[in-house]
Amino acid sequence: MKLLLIDPPFKSFTGIFNFYFPLGLAYLAGCVKREGFECAILDMDAAEGKEGAFDFSHEYERYQAYIKALNDPQHRTWKLLRKLVKEQKPDYIGITAMTTKFGSVIQTARFCREELPNIPILIGGPHATTMPDLTLEIPQVDFVVRGEADETLPDLLKALKDKKEIVDMPGVSFKKGNKVFHNPPRPFVKNLDSIPFPDRGALLHPESYSSEDMGVMLTSRGCPYLCSYCFHMWERKVRFRSTENIINEIKQVKAKYGTPQFSFKDDSFTVKESHVLNLCEALDKEKLKIGWSCTTRVDLLKDSLLKIMKKSGCNVLSVGVESGSERILAETEKGITHSQIRSAARLLNENRIFWSGYFMIGLPTETEKDIEETLAFVGKVKPYYSGLGVYNPFPGTKLFDQGVKLGLLDPAPDLDHFLSTNPKDLFFKDPKKRMVSISGERFEEIAKNATEYFHKYNKNPSNMIRRGFARRKAYFQDFSLLKRDIAKALELIGIPI
Asked: Which of 61, 86, 171, 191 is 20 to 30 Å from 48 by CA-CA measure?
């Protein structure tokens, strides 16, 4: 019996380059294969080749092309999806659902059912977990797998194969006649080492991924912090893989794909110092000679830890700065201060670790003065790369609930809304009214100016050179990474190749 896991098209519609591979689906592929099922992963953004722009400064405008493509059944990507799904001849289809591309999820389910009318369709992922009723409104969807699916998905497939009832199966929602049923949630996997490694070999179109794409990993699951903009599917519990388990996966990936540069995508990589120290010690001892990046928090960094991380290969580090306004920073409930941000910036710069600082604008109660303070703060902390995002509300977060109370958000849009609305405007009652004190027209102007400011900041040649120097060892092992980075740099300064 064969399962086809699909990551619906999104970036391919917009012309924006998409990094990495669908890690969550690869984990599920490993889990279902262990139970005797065949599995393939169709990452539609890789199916047409990994090409596209590296510049995200015009992301909003590019998403208009996404809306147009969603509603064009004759679009080349939908034709390709139909062809590839039919060629795979699956017995079951699973689709991952992110809120931002839920419209693509809807259409993917539709076209899959048209091609294979008798195949059960399962949906999982963050959006399906937070909005299972809406997800089950998609006519072609039979089951929703909520939360962590490593155990639920194999159990569901076995039940379907053996024609057994699933009425008591934890973590599953389903339709029976005109009724929707939600079984109790499934407890999290206690021992992460018991989960098979992500099955990268299940990926279709492997030629579309670089060695670095294959190096995305998790060393833990979960985050204990209370950020008001973040959805916690794993709640606030953190579970860690053993050092041995992590090292074995690194060895496997490096041996198979020649990966010299890894990316640890933990929510807060340094949340447990002993975990990091043990991993760094093992990386040194094994002499794996890899570079690696991670994401963490400014209040979890100290000089001694950074020195050990750098020695073991850490060459890129990302932190969320969020806002230059103390008031807005407090509203994010991130639990950090500007003093901690400045201290972390100083330590990172002193240790010469290439670091990225990420900022947000457009929070519900933000004022023009708050945004001005954010732009000014970029120059005070001086990250080597500075990312800017316009706040996008997600269900299941405190800021989403705040937006509903303020009358800005609609918590229950219908399915058609996701097929006709820019992904950056989902849930807004009026996309022109995103904030309490700034009009839509004025915010559009502010956001455009802020984006241009960040774009100009990131064109600084010295910072581009710093990033290249930080990744130099990876270039010697895989020259294609150098070519890709040069392409990104040239595009950033206005010379696309």
From this structure: 61
